[in-house]
Design a protein that fits this description.
The complex is a heterotrimer of chains A (280), B (332) and C (266). Chain A has one domain: P-loop containing nucleotide triphosphate hydrolases (Rossmann fold). Helices cover 39% and strands 21% of the residues of chain A. Chain A contains 11 helices and 10 strands. Chain A starts with a strand and ends with a helix. Chain B folds into 2 domains: 239 residues, P-loop containing nucleotide triphosphate hydrolases (Rossmann fold); 43 residues, no CATH class. Chain B is built from 12 helices and 10 strands. Chain B is globular, with a radius of gyration of 22 Å. Classes of the chains: A alpha/beta (280), B alpha/beta (332), C mainly alpha (266). Chains A and B meet through helix 6, helix 10 and helix 11 of A and helix 7, helix 11 and helix 12 of B.
Chain lengths: 280, 332, 266
Amino acid sequence: MSVIADHLNYIYSAGTAYEHKALDDVSFKIEDGEYVALLGQTGSGKSTLAQHLNGLLKPSSGTVYVDGEDIFEKGYDLKALRGKIGLVFQYPEYQLFEEDVFTDVCFGPKNLGLERSEVELRAYEALKLVGLKDEAFFQSPFDLSGGEKRRVALAGVLAMKPEVLILDEPTAGLDPGGREWIFELIDRLRAEQGITVILISHSMDDVAEHADRLLVMNGGSLVMDGRPREVFSYYKELMQMGLDIPQVSRVMYLLRENGVNVSMDAITVKEALGEILRLF
Amino acid sequence: MKETGDRRQGTVLCLLFVYHKKYSFKETENRPLSPHLILKSMSLIKTDKVSYEYIRRDKDGAVEGINKAVDEIDLSVEKGDFIAILGANGSGKSTLAKHFNALLYPVGGTVFVGGMDTRDEEHLWDIRQTTGMVFQNPDNQIIGTVVEEDVAFGPENMGVKSRDIWERVIRSLKSVDMFEYRKHSPSRLSGGQKQRVAIAGVLAMQPECIVLDEPTAMLDPMGRKEVIASIRELNKTFGITIILITHYMEEAVHADKVYIMDKGRIVMQGTPKQIFTNVEELRGVGLSVPKVTELAFELRRRGVDLPEGILTETELANELCRTLSEAKHRKF
Amino acid sequence: MIRDITLGQYYQTESVLHGLDPRLKIIGTFLYIISLFLVRDIFGYAVAGIFLAVLIVLSHVPFKFMVRGLKGILVLLIFTGVVNVFLTPGEVLVSVWKFNITREGLKVGSRMVIRLVFLVIGSSLMTLTTTPNRLTDGLERVLKPLKRLKLPVHEMAMIMSIALGFIPILIEELDKIMKAQSARGADFESKKLSARIKSMVPILVPLFVSAFRRAGDLATAMEARCYHGGEGRTKLKPLRYRRADYIAYLVLILYFILIIAEGIIF
C-alpha cells in the first residue's frame, strides 16, 4: 500500500493569537513494505504529520493519497482507512478501557463491522502475536504490569490487521528489554505480513539499526529524506537542528577528526566493528 | 468504574481523603523504632536489611500472594555522593527510592536518613526536608499555576517567612537555569523545563539530598540532557547528594557509584567503569550498555588493546588512536 | 470546541484589574451579581452595563474572549429567553399557534437574558484577571470566618486551585484519547443518542483512570514536599491591600449605592 503526502500544510488555531504553522508544504511517497523512521525534535511536526496519514487531522491545504485515492475527498471511507493504516499513540496503554483484555482488543476489529467470529479470531491472533500469556486474556487490563499493558494496547491496533503501521514513539518509558521487544515485534510483522512501518522516534541509535529510510522534520518542514547513512552523513546539519547522531557515528567522526581514515558509513556497532578492525 | 481497582487513588476531590488516611500512621505496624544512628554512623542515608512487600489481592479482595518488591537491601549514601540506582521495570528501584523520604515504610529492616529512623513519626517532616524527591511525570508534580508559585510550595509548607521564601525561590530557579521563566505558566513549558522547575521546587526546601525517580523517562533527548546537566551541576557546584533512579545507562556514567537492582535485590555495585565492564551480566538483568561501551567491548573481545569499561565516545576515539599508533610502531 | 470554555481561565496581561487584590475582586463580583438582581428597569441595566463595560476596557482582556465564554451557555440563554417570552401572561402582541408572545413576556425574557449575560461576563472577568492561585488565596481569606463552623476552607481552596491547574492537562489528554480511539475505528458522529452515549465509554474510562492516577501521583508529590494541610503554612505572596484596592472598594460602594438609589427613586 503506498502512501503519498502531497503538499501538506497544517495551521493550528488559525486566526487566533496562537496561530502556528505545524506542517509546511510536506510531500513524500512511502512505498509498500518500507521501514521508515520519522525524526525531529519535539514540536517539529512529526506527530501532526502522522495524524494526517490516517485522516485524524485534516490538512489546511494539500492532501494524502492512499493507494492512489484522495482520503480527504467527500465520501471516502475514513473508518475503513483507519483499519488499513494503524496508528499507535505514545503510551497506548493509557487508552485501555474494557473490562477484560480480550474485549479491549476486540474493540478495533468490531468497529470495522466484521463478523463476531472474525473479530474474536483476530483478537486472539493479535494477542498471541504480542506474546501475552494466556491466563492474562480475561484479566482486567488495569491489573497488568506496565509492559503487559503496552502489549495489549499494541494488539488492539494489530487486530485490525493494518497494512501500514504508524508507531508514535513506541518505546517511550520502556526499559531496554522492553525496547528490544518492540523492535523484534516490528521485525516479525515485516517478515510475516510484509507490513509497512512508519516509526516516529527520538533515538538515533535505534533508527540507525532498524530503519531503511529516514525522514527528518524541522519546524514543520521535511528537510531530509534518504537512507540512514546518507542522512547521518549530514551530522553537522542534524546537530544544528538540535538532533543527535548515533553514538557510533560520533566515534567515527572523532576518529576522522584525529586523522584516522574511517568511513562515516558505519552507523551501527556491527558496521563500526568491521570498519575499525580493518585498520589493524 | 470498578476497573480502577484498589490502588491508592482519588479524584482531586478525594485527594483530601487520601491525606487523612495517610496521616494516621497507626495503620503501619508498631515495630519498635531503632535508636538514632547519629553517633554510630555519619552516612546521610543508610538502609539496614530493608524489605518491602506488596500484597496482591484477587477481585474479591482475598489475598492471592505477596510480592517482595524490595528484598533485604543494605546500602549507604555519604554526603555529597552521586549515586545511580539502575534496574529494569519492576526491579524494585522506585519502591526503594520512596523509602528514602518516608513515602513508604519498610516492612522489614530500617532506613536511616540523617540518623533518623524513617518510621519515627516525630521526625517525618525533618526527613522529608532532608531528602527531597523528584518524580517521573512532570505534569503530576507541579502544584502551582505560575513557576515561582510552584517552587514556593515546599517552603510555604515548612512555614518559612515570605521574604525568605522569595530568596529561596530566586536562588533555586537560578541554579537550574529557569529564572527567566519564573512568571510563566508551567503548562506551556517543555518537559525538560518542567522537570527543572520540579527540581527547583525541591531545592527551595534546602535539602541535603535529592532523590530523582526516573526523572527523564518521559522526556525527549533534549530534555533528558537538560535535566542531567542540572543534576550534575547541583552535585558538583552545590555539593548536594544525588540519588538518581533510572534505566538509561548513559545517565549513570557520571555517578560516583552505581547499584544494579534485579527482583528487589542489589545484584551489582561499583563505579560505572567496574559495572559497565560486565556487558553480558547487565543484559541478563534486562539492561543494556551504551553503544560506545558495547563497541569497545566487542573490539576488546576481538583482541584490540583497549582498557575495560569505556563509557564515552571521546574516550573510545582517544584510546583507538593510541592503540593504532602503537600498532603502527610495532609494524615498522 | 472544548477549548472555548473561558470560565475559570486566566488571561495573562498587565492591567489595573490584574493588579487588584483577589479578595476585593471576589467580594466585588459577589456584589455585582446581587446588584443585577436588584435592578428593575432599563436605567438600572444601563448603569450595570456601563460599569461592566468600563471594567472590560480596564482589564485589557480582548472582548472576543468573554463572548466566547458565552457560547458555552448559549443553549441556556435561548431556553431562558424562549420560555419567558412565551409563558409570561399579559398583553398579547403576537399569537403563534397555541402560544402567545406578550409584552410582559418580552420584557421579562430580555431582562433574564441580559442578566445572565452580565453575570457570566462579570464572573469570567474575575477569573480572567486573577491567577487561579491568587483566586484561591482570596477565597480562602474571604471564607476564613467559616472555619469556625469546622468547614475545611483551606482544603477546599487547595482542591479548587489544583483542579483549575489540571484543566488544560486533562483537555489535552481528552483530545489524545479521542484520537487514539478514532484510530481504532471508534465513531463519535453517530446520530442515534444511545450509540453516542455508548461511544463515550472508550473515552471516559481512560480519562477517569488517568485522572485517578494523576491525583495519586500528585498526592505523593505534595506529601514529599511537606504538605500537611493549612496549619503553619506561610505564603510566598501574602495578601496585602494597597491604595488601589481601597480606591476600588470606594468605587464599588458608590456603584452599589447608585443601583439601590436608582431602584428607590424610579
